[in-house]
Amino acid sequence: MIRSLLAALILSVFAPVTALGATVISDTEFVNINWSATEIADNTPNDSFVFSGTQVANGGNPGAFRTIVSQVSTAVASNVAAAHIYEAATYDPSGQGAIGSLNFSFDLNAVSGPAGAMGAGAVVRQDGNFFTFGLGQVLNGSGWVGLTTGPLSSLQFNPISGGTLDFSGNGGVMSFGFFASNGTFGTPSTNTAGFDNFRVEIAKVSVVPLPAGLPLLLTTLVGLGVVARRKHRY
Description:
Layout: H1 2-13, E1 22-27, E2 35-42, E3 50-56, E4 65-72, E5 78-91, H2 93-96, E6 99-112, E7 117-126, E8 129-139, E9 145-152, E10 158-159, E11 174-184, E12 189-204, H3 214-233
Antiparallel strand pairs: 1-12, 2-5, 3-4, 4-12, 5-11, 6-9, 6-12, 7-8, 7-11, 8-10
């Protein structure tokens, strides 16, 4: 009888605890005020990289999308990139929970330009620093192509402007977005592309708390020990 009661108590105390869920940040409308654009790479000899991002109401996958223009006016081969950050939502690990991993996805439509393709990837901004993870290139004329990656740890991101990406509960506030990049081949160029259906899933670290019934279990075990000793004594 005592063994049966003890087994039932142990099962109730260590019943599975629901893991912490994920936070999702996404955008399909790309209203201009919600997005910013920042240069994160430019090795042109005269710093001639000009870039922009603007909402287009129709023609996305479907509906609205963000059109990207990357323009370089130099006769020297170079590589350029701009980070486009969704400013309407942030995540604070210190208040919302440590991050286990990130999953990114968005659609890319490389439209035109002598580079023949547009490169793209995921971006995290923390404490003013940018961290990237490349997803690859989409050839011009391929239409809308879905790009996805993850789960990504903090160590998989490339630091662009210094600093260390911190997913822990001590980490600073984060913003998320994508980058657009292309190379030139010794001639001035203008490359255009469209981005749609941006989404980042923030998977929190699963923390299993101390079972609430553990003190009761310990008390019960002590009591059973006392009873067993008394029986053995008499």
